[in-house]
Amino acid sequence: MATTFRYQIPVEQTQWIFDGRADTAFTWEYEDGREKLLTLYDKGKKQQWDAATRIDWSQDLDPENPMMLDDRAVQIWGSPIWERLTQKERTAVRYHLQAQSLSQFMHGEQGALIATAKIVQTVPSADAKFYAATQVMDEARHVEAYARLLHEKFEIAYPITPGLKALLEHGVMLNLVADRYPKGIEEH
Ligand SMILES: [Fe+2]
Prior knowledge:
Blueprint: H1 35-46, H2 51-54, H3 80-84, H4 87-122, H5 126-154, H6 162-169, H7 172-186
This protein binds fe (ii) ion.
Fe (ii) ion binds near residues 109, 112, 139 and 142.
């Protein structure tokens, strides 16, 4: 079933496109200064994992508390409203809050996927692009794992919150990562 039908709050559209222009750097030099970054790239290649097989998806989660979280993690725990809730209502709150927070992780991971793809686009050297590509694959796996968890186990999802959306939209994360990456990766 498409995610659209699992959202607990209606989403007006299932696409979100905004202008996130960045310089695109091609390079014609494929050999210079390779060693350090290629070591990281090789490491990245060897450490690839498959979210479909590495995680045991056959396990059933507790329907009353899928993430096995202490009730103190519930934002309204201890409040007069919480105290008034029946056990059944508390289970529903727990379930929806956990799905809500996992949904934000899922959307955030998509942000990371796009941010790392942008790094591939903007870093100048081929080696940095190679290594950044392994990060892109890693973020794709994170989106895959959260999406599968929500679809198969929770069977519900929540749309992106305005706060997270604003963070991604204003490109705070994307630009910061892209600007700092060339220096950051040398220091790795
Ligand atoms: Fe991630």
